[in-house]
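Support case: 3,4-dihydroxyphenylalanine complex. Customer-provided input:
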Amino acid sequence: MLKQLQKNIIAEIEKASELDELDKIYKRYLGRNGELTLFFRSLKDLPEEERKIKGRLANEIKEKIKNALEEKSKKLQDSKKEDLTSSTEGKLKKEWFDITAPGEKFKLGHLHPLTLIKREIIDIFQHMGFSPVEGPEIEDEWHNFDALNIQKDHPARDALSLGKTLYLKEEIPVKQKTKGKLLLRTHTSSVQIRYMEKNNPPFKIIAVGKIFRAEATDASHEINFYQVEGLMVDENVSVSNFKAIIQEFFKRFFKKPVKIRLRPSYFPFTEPSFEVDISCIVCQGKGCSVCKNTGWVEIMGAGMVHPYVFNSVKLNPKFWNGFAFGIGMDRLTMMKYKINDIRLFYSGDLRFLNQF
Ligand code: DAH
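Agent response - structure generated as follows:
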């Protein structure tokens, strides 16, 4: 019977997986009221011979159980330690990182090529004493046409057929008093009017901004693009002032000497008016597809401010005179970077934009 008990206890010890299970086993058999303890107590009632034999056996069993408990407890403690270290190791392995490794580069956005060019142009003109100014993209007929001597029947004002003006369908609330229908400005010349209405000469201003025309788009036409408008008004401004300034501008912009030539032209707001060509940057004037083999590229309109314009803004044309010009900025940028399609600027194509 004692042997069977020993077997059972040893089996229980083997099975135990937690230290407190071992505690319970100890209490159950060897505690104050443990089965084996009670058995020891009952020995005193046995006859001496039997007591000796059973007593020895019980002691042996007690010893074995104690040893088994001790051994198992050590085993459990060791495996617990191992668990702990292995989980710390796992954690460390997972969390390890190389602090000496080079960091990941953030992808930063950058400015649009037209914005870069706009800033560059303003910078060059500022160095020549011109102040950058702005005007609204939604204009009224007065500032965009009337004040500039563009008559009511001028084809440019037409929304259909020959005209390219985009009129707004409905009256929208705008801060300033409007004169005539609202439209998207078709040129930056309207900024000249806005500026001269509020300022007295002498002045030199530059306005770079978006303009809108109902064009059929192709490689050289877009429905919106940029113009650079310049205006210099003083008592004694001449065409040679204009030539000198614009020649210097192109030299700084293209970073090489550029030839210019003036051809007579017509604009309602200037007299005389001219078209300005520059020697082709792409082929250095030798002839290529960009300049259609002429060696020259038409880049801007210009002229001496028409007396009618001064009168519209209540400046006396007897005292003041000046020159004005309008450059197609997209074209200028296309020349500088040898871009052959204006639509690329407005496509949002990152393969194109990332090159700048
Ligand atoms: N506004 C003209 C256009 O859109 C360009 C222009 C020509 C502007 C002559 C001027 C100028 O200031 O004097 O085509």
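The two ends are 95 Å apart (CA to CA).

Case will auto-close in a few days if no follow-up is received.
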